[in-house]
Amino acid sequence: MAKEKRPNIRGLITRRFYTFFIIILAVFLYLLFSLYKVVVLKGPKFRSEAMATYVKKRKIEATRGNIYSDDGSLLSTTLPKYRLGMDPSVLTGNAKADEFYKQHIDGLAAALSNFFKDRTAEEYKEKISAARKSGRTYLLLNNRLLDFQEKKKVLSFPLFKEAKNSNKSGVVFDKINVRYAPFGQMAYRTVGYLKDLRDKGRVGIENSFDKELRGEFGEGMFEKMDNNTWRPEPGDEPKLPVAGVDLHSTIDINIQEIVETALLNGMKIFKGNYAVAIVMETSTGKIKALSNIAANPLSPTGYSETYNYALLEARDPGSVFKLPSIMAVLEEKNYPLTKMVNTGDGKFRLYNGVMSDSHPLGTISLEQVIESSSNVGTMKLVQEAFGTTNNEKFYNYLKKYHLIESLDFQLKPSRKPVFPVPAKWDGLQLLWSSVGYSTQYTPLQILAFYNAVANNGYWVQPLIVSKATRGDEVVIDYTASQVRDSKPLCSPETLQKLRIMLEGVVTKGTANNIKGSVYGIAGKTGTAQRTVTGAKGYRKGNYYTTFAGYFPVKNPKYTMIVAVDEPKGSAEGTYARQVTAPVFKEIADRIYLRDMKLQQTLRGYLPDSLNKNKLAHTLHPADQNILFSRLGLPKVEENGQWVNFNLEKKTVNNQAITMTPKTVPNVVGMNLRDALFALENKGLKVRANGFGTVKNQSIPAGSPAAKNRLVYIQLQ
């Protein structure tokens, strides 16, 4: 039997070894070639891309300009905030650094945990140690922004404090500019803000003047530290930014607070969709206050400023539009106020349209047409003056009154009124628009017209930013480009008739519930039926109410409009008479009390019955001559100082009050006018509550009187 042949085991193993070796060698050569390709051939490109990713040229934000009120109070400013990070690499490299780190890391971790309250001390220690071991040059410790005082506190933490002088703590503060409003929500929408979830951008002055406020960006090289943090590249010489200019608004903080309080009170009573109030200085067109409030269940008060209805929400203006219509009629026909108009049963019928008065008025005078706000009377006068077909004249009058084109107001967008051109009118358009229907106007557009009536007929473009400054230098004077008519809107005769009628609205017409003020109010109510969303036409009982007017009646200083959309109530309880007119008066009353220049001079003589009583009062220097000379009381010379006036029967004793410079005066016992005069002359801001004389003040007399410091006074 043949012997079986054995396989060559050694040869098989050798072949397999060489095969494996060749494969390994091929892989090694391939990796070596790939490394050469990455490092040598494509290295410059990859390094360039890495530099572009982690070191790049970035814009350097300029310091944003401030926004001031008319008296220099800060409405919006930029404050530096700081994000805390550290460079753990400075705490490595030698035994001394290691020992220093071990001594202080526990104390630092505990301090960070106690300060931020978001991690335990152990978690902070682990986070820092891991970054240190991995050789990281930047670690964001916490994303919360710190103010300057918090920054100082962090520098007192263990490790940071001990290494402060040697600059070996590794602490890094990334500076971030944050916009801050010292007065909080006051004039929130008007001053504006930089970001908002609803608007997804800027609004108000911050938006419309963004270019001026933001200045010019600089540019420099920065190294990326993490997703949100960049650090200037050492050795780079950046192009420095140019700070933005400061804007000086026309807003009066005191009047703004009065307006916001009165609007809130009105909304709590009538619970409308929204409320608007604008106060304008008559002669200058400067907006002294502008407020919009709407229901907001997330706000502590239930209301907040979420949209600028005063500038952006256009409605049928209703009866406040009768004034420009009657101005056009008087200019065209020069009717006397005694001209009689037959309003019949209170219904005006033309084609398929019917317009009604709230009550039948019969035959009334032209003066009573405005005083009683007669739709029928207005339409008949317009029809008589302009007809129903040749109505281009009426349109041209409105154009002259600035009621057709946009106001081109400083806050953007500036809406254009909705008023069809005559070529598109039907037979009803002229008459319906004459009483404020089939048109759309914002409150500001209506206010600008009423302001012209108060301003002796001269139309002035509304203004809310008066100038831009850099330091003490005025770089832009916005009053220089403000539009001012060189001629009045109407004749002096027409103007006099209109002002008589507007005063009559308050003394004996639709707003006679607000008559009786010592300074006098003139104005016009407006109650327009609103269109209903999703429905055609108007619905009775669903109103947009307005009161537009001015005060004091004889020499107007302020013009104002108040509007409330869809106030809740029943029957006539939601007319302008009950809703907006009282709010107007509340605002006017409080402005009058605060404005020293509006106060009337005392005249007359003290009655004998009063001479027999005992009186005590803190006396303003300007009133001494009235009491002592005009009222026949004996005068004690006090060199124009404030005095404590004491009268018992006919004996007068005065004690001079010494007011130390740069200190808070004692105003207890003074009336509101005198207290405001004394405190505001010291540069203080005043918030007053109550009526009568001052019973207490929040800052004690004799305290340092820091400029713009807020003091509360209680009157009883």
From TrEMBL:
<dbReference type="Pfam" id="PF03717">
    <property type="entry name" value="PBP_dimer"/>
</dbReference>
<dbReference type="Pfam" id="PF00905">
    <property type="entry name" value="Transpeptidase"/>
</dbReference>
<keyword id="KW-0121">Carboxypeptidase</keyword>
<dbReference type="InterPro" id="IPR012338">
    <property type="entry name" value="Beta-lactam/transpept-like"/>
</dbReference>
<dbReference type="InterPro" id="IPR005311">
    <property type="entry name" value="PBP_dimer"/>
</dbReference>
<dbReference type="InterPro" id="IPR036138">
    <property type="entry name" value="PBP_dimer_sf"/>
</dbReference>
<keyword id="KW-0812">Transmembrane</keyword>
<dbReference type="Pfam" id="PF03793">
    <property type="entry name" value="PASTA"/>
</dbReference>
<keyword id="KW-0472">Membrane</keyword>
<feature type="domain" description="PASTA">
    <location>
        <begin position="658"/>
        <end position="716"/>
    </location>
</feature>
<dbReference type="InterPro" id="IPR005543">
    <property type="entry name" value="PASTA_dom"/>
</dbReference>
<keyword id="KW-0645">Protease</keyword>
<dbReference type="InterPro" id="IPR001460">
    <property type="entry name" value="PCN-bd_Tpept"/>
</dbReference>
<protein>
    <submittedName>
        <fullName>Penicillin-binding protein</fullName>
    </submittedName>
</protein>
<keyword id="KW-0378">Hydrolase</keyword>
<dbReference type="InterPro" id="IPR050515">
    <property type="entry name" value="Beta-lactam/transpept"/>
</dbReference>
<feature type="transmembrane region" description="Helical">
    <location>
        <begin position="20"/>
        <end position="39"/>
    </location>
</feature>
<keyword id="KW-1133">Transmembrane helix</keyword>
